[in-house]
Amino acid sequence: MNYRIKDISLADQGKNQLEWAEIHMPALIKIQKDLEREKPLKGVRIAAVLHVTKETGVLMKTLKLAGADISLAASNPLSTQDDIAAALVKYYDVSVFAWKGESEKDYYDNIKSLLESEPQIVMDDGGDLHAFLHENGLYGKVFGGTEETTTGVVRLKAMEEQGVLKYPVIAVNNAFTKYLFDNRFGTGQSAIDGVLRATNILIAGKTCVVAGYGWVGRGIASRLRGLGGRVIVVEASPLRALEAVMEGFEVMNMRDASKIGDLFITATGNIRAISKEHIANMKDGAILANAGHFNVEIDVEGLRSMAKSRRIVRPYTEENELQDGRRIYLLADGRLVNLAAGEGHPSEVMDLSFSNQALSIVHIYKNRGKLEPKVYDVPNHIDEQVALLKLNSMGIEIEKLTEEQIEYSKQWKYGT
């Protein structure tokens, strides 16, 4: 088994972390037990580019017990938990190519290493693996894949529209039991956790600017308000901006918000949501963090070009002193703050996302050769199965329709 990780001696610590995560991922563990018994993925070669966290470790173990051969690389240079990487290698025979603090060259070299296994199914978080396979014509043996996050789905949709997508992909991000919970409650909590670990600031009383009001932005804005922050939303979509207003948030453009914000968190999925021009407006002590997948939302190069000096004042907190003496603080190099400066989402919410992943992988394999090269939503029966598993694990019993109610919902004749 090939692998490249930081330190195999961290494996026991990682195994403990995996076991802790499993306690809080009951839906996935139920699926894991079923798949271990049935072995529906026996001999299937899977390559995954995901954040190497304890929750991902539980997913990898689940697929391994289902019979798959797995290779794993990180979907962000700073998101790997090195003890998890070690545990997956030592105890679960997963070929891992990942460590925290990879260079850009390391990052892509590790993705290349996955392809030595000639994968048949690929799993991605952000679209880099899918893009690499297509750009280099290496998709020949792949008969399907999945995508975990909004950014990757956008890229895959563009590939589909341009007619270059060569295999079917299930957009796990689009499952109700993913984006309504992972994006909103998961990122809403973990992004702020990353900010607090890096800075230990008090949110109460701060003017907090959230760029983007998709499901991630909604979650962050809600949690900041819950902690006593005065929250301003910056949004380009009139529909989302109106929604933010109706939710009671102040809405303005970044030009105006940049003059008054204390803490800025980007969640747009787009480039330079915070530009040099915005940074030039900011007050002394402003803190910049990114919760989007790629480190393009804050103009990091622009900020550093404006600074007369830079220093690390705390782990993952970089002070940039501008020419006039103002200090602007950049967290985690502008990368995903929840994973670079924290541990990512709580296990409980990843239970939903990764249950979708596991069942979608099985669906892809069982339907190999039958699906066109398109982006598909998670089948509704999988989405509902995951929700029901989660509710059952929480001891919640929901209502069941009677036969009369089922028949009534199908008719069209009866009115008032």
UniProtKB/TrEMBL annotation:
Cofactor note: Binds 1 NAD(+) per subunit.
Recorded metabolic or biological pathway in which this protein acts: Amino-acid biosynthesis; L-homocysteine biosynthesis; L-homocysteine from S-adenosyl-L-homocysteine: step 1/1
SUPFAM superfamilies: Formate/glycerate dehydrogenase catalytic domain-like (SSF52283), NAD(P)-binding Rossmann-fold domains (SSF51735)
Annotated EC: 3.13.2.1
Residues annotated for substrate binding in this entry: 53, 125, 148, 178, 182
Role: May play a key role in the regulation of the intracellular concentration of adenosylhomocysteine.
NCBIfam families (UniProt xref): ahcY, PRK05476.2-3
UniProt-recorded name of the protein: Adenosylhomocysteinase
Native species: Metallosphaera hakonensis JCM 8857 = DSM 7519
Gene: ahcY
